[in-house]
Design a protein that fits this description.
This protein is mainly alpha-helical. The protein contains 15 helices and four strands. InterPro entries: MFS_trans_sf, POT_fam.
């Protein structure tokens, strides 16, 4: 008997055939999309501070802040793509719309790097003159640095959600088709992260070499070419995809709940659920049961005869709003936990540039040092997915071996250790200044790179899967965007933290702050790292409290039938049991 998949259609709008649509053959195209886009995006993101400081002559603090804002914009703009794909346009078509926007951004930066009139002249070391980018050229730079995130953000979130749509629900155990798809869905996000790492690995070797040896213009053009190839490959997979039909704006539905709850704040709650409204149209693809928390929102679904749009809400709408409120503490504490990470990534490039980067007589570009954590991450991901998860699943009973939030907590603990190690290494490097001894080898940074790799395997994948799995069927893209928003908000807060620390540590008589020096030798990066380590430790304990308080929508110890098996395109769909 064929596996029945509801709530999904093929590219022509017909019900999907599980034997022809979805599964591994479909996600292979998505994996290529992720690899190709990250081949250009990751090296640009990690090496952009070198371009801003070396070619555009920005100071260390301004270059680091701009780089952090670039990374933050990529993540925050994912909300736009998620909103469009959940509300109006299928995820596949959202990718096709936003991929050319990313290509345009790379071409703008390529043109600016190529034509001398569009960037500052080389520094005159003899005269001590080094003009930073300004005026129209600065505006062009900022335009390119924000057009790229506009496209890349949509590709990230829609790629993850489209991949998740290719697998239906079922029990993990067993040999039936539903079980096979459930196991595939459980592994998808691990391999999604693996493809990000694989793209980053190739890009940090190839694209960074082109940027540093052949010119930034060719480096940006190569990133644009990779995005173009990615768009062509994902287009070739169109006949194989399962498509989730948009059901209207989830943000509007949630806002309606708060408005209706306020309007009905004086209404008495009925004793029977019969007096509460449930959907009667065909737009809802998943019905959610009433849960006991956040009782003040339940009044939004009371049938008091008021049929105005912003007064009549369904139980499912109310439960969608409750899902967001439940996840809010995890979201906020995860933002705090991620604040130091973009700063550590950014400053590690500059830290590596101030050390001996030779390997067997060959100078290694500092940005290429991120190959080390990426290789660690790829090896750990494969070992975790193929060896650790099956064993942990048998030992703990959890569908993924451990819960999503436990996995995230391990990552935050690793990041605190990485920051402490980075501070110790920088302190030692500074003590070696002025001493008649060889410069420290850049490979002193390897331990902190390893811990960063551990964090990516745990926190990155854990949070992405957590927000996707906990979101309702009509909010899957938004759920993924919430995760990327964590990264973006954390990057922007990191940029603000740099400025705040500089102002707080600036002394009189022209003495600058910890990060106001012309280079790292004139700055106090070690002190800043120690501050970040303490910040991360506090954030870790706050996260532990919010994770301990959180109640999963589906108990992780028993793999439920995933949402796809519980959704329906009509109002005749009956019930779904969501464990709280």
């Amino acid at each position: 008997m064929a596996l029945q998949v509801q709530g999904l259609v093929d590219w022509r709008g017909r019900p999907v055939d599980p034997r022809r649509h979805g599964g591994l053959k479909a996600v292979m195209f998505i994996y290529v999309l992720i690899v190709m886009t990250n081949m250009g995006n990751i090296p640009t993101m990690l090496n952009i501070v070198s371009y801003l400081h070396g070619t555009m002559h920005m100071g260390i603090a301004d270059a680091s802040t701009t780089a952090a804002n670039f990374y933050g914009a990529i993540c925050v703009f994912s909300f736009l793509g998620a909103f469009i794909s959940d509300s109006y346009i299928k995820r596949f078509y959202t990718i096709l719309i936003f991929a050319p926007i990313e290509i345009l951004g790379y071409m703008l930066l390529a043109c600016q790097a190529h034509f001398p009139s569009l960037h500052p002249p080389p520094c005159d070391a003899a005269a001590g003159q080094c003009a930073a980018v300004s005026g129209r050229n600065l505006s062009l730079l900022r335009l390119g640095l924000y057009v790229i995130p506009l496209g890349e953000g949509a590709l990230r979130v829609c790629g993850a959600a489209l991949g998740g749509d290719q697998f239906d629900g079922g029990e993990v155990g067993g040999d039936d088709p539903a079980a096979a798809e459930a196991r595939g869905k459980a592994s998808f996000f691990n391999w999604f992260a693996f493809c990000i790492s694989l793209g980053g690995l190739v890009g940090l070797v190839l694209v960074v070499w082109v940027q540093n040896n052949e010119g930034w213009d060719l480096g940006f053009a190569l990133a644009a070419l990779m995005a173009l190839v990615a768009m062509a490959v994902v287009l070739a997979g169109l006949p194989f995809y399962r498509h989730r039909v948009p059901t209207g704006s989830p943000l509007t539905r949630i806002l309606q709940v708060f408005v209706a709850a306020f309007r009905k704040r004086n209404v008495t709650m009925p004793e029977s659920l019969v007096e509460m409204q449930e959907c009667s149209d065909g737009s809802t693809i998943e019905l959610l049961d009433k849960t006991p928390d956040f009782k003040f929102l339940d009044k939004a679904a009371v049938d008091d005869g008021d049929r105005r749009r912003w007064s009549a809400c369904t139980v499912t709408q109310v439960e969608e709003a409750k899902i967001i409120l439940r996840m809010l503490p995890v979201f906020l504490t995860s933002v705090l936990g991620y604040v130091p990470i973009p700063l550590l990534l950014t400053f590690t490039v500059q830290q590596g540039g101030a050390m001996d980067t030779r390997l067997a007589g060959t100078s290694v570009p500092p940005a290429s040092l991120f190959v080390v954590p990426i290789v660690f991450q790829m090896l750990i991901l494969v070992a975790y997915d193929r060896a650790a998860v099956p064993w942990l699943r048998r030992a703990t009973g959890y569908a993924a071996g451990v819960t999503h939030l436990q996995r995230v907590g391990l990552g935050f603990a690793s990041s605190a250790a990485a920051l402490a190690l980075a501070a110790a290494v920088e302190s030692r490097r500074r003590r070696c200044l002025g001493v008649a001894a060889p410069a420290m080898s850049v490979f002193w940074l390897t331990p902190q790179f390893f811990l960063l790799g551990v964090m990516d395997v745990t926190s990155f994948v854990g949070l992405l899967e957590f927000f996707y799995s906990e979101a309702s069927a009509g909010m899957k893209s938004i759920g993924g965007a919430v995760f990327f928003c964590i990264l973006g908000v954390a990057s922007w807060l990191g940029g603000a933290l740099i400025q705040a620390v500089n102002r707080a540590t600036a002394g009189g008589a022209g003495h600058g702050g910890w990060l106001d020096g012309a280079d790292l030798d004139a700055s106090h990066l070690d002190r800043f790292y120690w501050l970040l380590a303490v910040f991360e430790l506090v954030a870790f304990f706050l996260y532990l409290y919010s994770a301990w308080r959180y109640t999963y929508r589906h108990h992780p110890r028993v793999q439920p039938s995933m949402e796809d098996a519980k959704v329906s395109a009509t109002a005749t769909t009956t019930t779904k049991k969501a464990e709280v």
